[in-house]
Write a structure and sequence with these properties.
InterPro entries: LRR_dom_sf (IPR032675), RanGAP1/2 (IPR045203). One of its GO terms (molecular function) is kinase activity. Keywords: Kinase, Transferase. This is Kinase domain protein, putative. The chain is α/β, with parallel strands linked by helices. The chain has a domain of 89 residues: Ribonuclease Inhibitor (Leucine-rich repeat, LRR (right-handed beta-alpha superhelix)), CATH 3.80.10.10. The protein contains 12 helices and 13 strands. Helix 1 links the parallel strand 1 and strand 2.
Length: 356
């Protein structure tokens, strides 16, 4: 783990020999930060390959943020970049500066941007995507954009831009409580399906105004994800319903190399049809060893749970199982027997089942 550095310590470091740096300003008040002074020191690290920059809660103004993004543009040997901007106010020109800086990082392997609850907006998100799209060697991308007022057209433009990152192996997008809608999620999966090296995909689309048709839209693109090994989808508090859930799992069963699957569909009015789709899907995933399902607050009955149990018994390599079925029509006596029956699946080495 890289040790966090204060400004005083920054000045004492050997600029030419340092390749990894963690600059943490989260505990300093904005009035105490001379951004120009920091950035003048930062650009002296001419061989820097890894940078973690925590600007959370600093309440930096427009010019201070501009100083930091301008400094980043001069660190052209970076391979790893992680920035936290939580609780800062970024305007469109800040995103343009950040995108311009990122676009010059042609050696970048890993990019991690945390913009939690920053009001990004559609145009700014599209601009950011254009900068990332120039990182032709990028393999790992993580972006947190919770409650950022992003709508479907912003998602679409961002998705089209990252199609250029042909080396991407891992994508982790946290878009909790935005307005992706069906149009946005369709373009997102269409663009990602063109990334032939993608093997890990994590998406948080909780409260994104998706309806039952979104399941079929996602499923229509999944056959192209031929090397995908891990899929994590958080979709709770949309309106998928049984039909959307059934369509989604019908698509997932085509992911023949899938080893890890996490699906969150809490509070989506799912009943019998959804249970049948789950059972059919997992019984066809021969490489699956880790399965996590969040189905809290739906409309499953005890007979539906038996269907899922039947599907589980056919998964050849399943060793890890986690279920959340709180808030369905299942009594405790049945739950106890069900947990016992699951424990008899000999391949399982770990199980964690929740019914209450």
């Amino acid at each position: 783990m890289i040790e966090a550095n204060s400004f005083e310590k920054l000045k004492d470091l050997n600029k030419e020999q340092t390749t990894k740096l963690f600059l943490d300003l989260a505990l300093k008040e904005s009035k105490d930060i001379n951004s120009n002074e920091y950035t003048q020191e930062l650009i002296k690290f001419t061989n820097l390959q890894s940078l973690k920059l925590n600007l959370s809660c600093c309440e930096l103004n427009f010019e201070q943020l501009k100083d930091f993004t301008n400094a980043l543009s001069q660190l052209n040997k970076l391979q790893y970049l992680k920035i936290k901007f939580i609780e800062n106010v970024l305007v469109e020109s800040n995103f343009q500066d950040l995108a311009d800086s990122i676009s010059k990082m042609t050696d970048l392997d890993t990019l991690n941007l945390n913009l939690d609850e920053v009001n990004v907006g559609n145009n700014s998100f599209a601009i950011l995507g254009q900068g990332i799209g120039n990182c032709i060697n990028l393999k790992n991308l993580k972006i947190v954009l919770r409650k950022s007022q992003i709508e479907s057209d912003g998602i679409q433009k961002f998705a089209e831009a990252i199609e250029k990152c042909k080396q991407l192996q891992r994508i982790d997008l946290d878009l909790f409580e935005n307005k992706t809608k069906n149009e946005g999620v369709n373009q997102l999966f269409q663009s990602m399906s063109k990334l032939s090296n993608l093997n890990i995909l994590k998406l948080d689309l909780v409260k994104n105004e998706l309806n039952s048709a979104a399941g079929q839209l996602i499923a229509s693109h999944l056959p192209k994800f031929t090397v995908l090994k891990e899929l994590h989808l958080q979709l709770r508090e949309n309106t998928f319903s049984c039909q959307g859930t059934s369509d989604l799992f019908d698509g997932i069963k085509d992911l023949k190399n899938l080893q890890v699957l996490t699906i969150g569909l809490t509070n989506n009015d799912i009943a019998k049809q959804g249970a049948i789709a789950i059972a059919n899907c997992i019984s066809s995933l021969n490489q699956l060893y880790n399965f996590t399902l969040y189905f809290n607050q739906n409309k499953l009955l005890e007979e539906d749970m038996k269907v899922i149990r039947s599907g589980l018994s056919k998964v050849l390599n399943l060793t890890n199982l986690t279920f959340y079925f709180n808030g369905n029509n299942i009594n405790q006596q049945f739950a106890d027997k069900y947990i016992l029956s699951i424990s008899k699946i000999r391949r399982l080495v770990y199980q964690d089942l929740h019914f209450q």
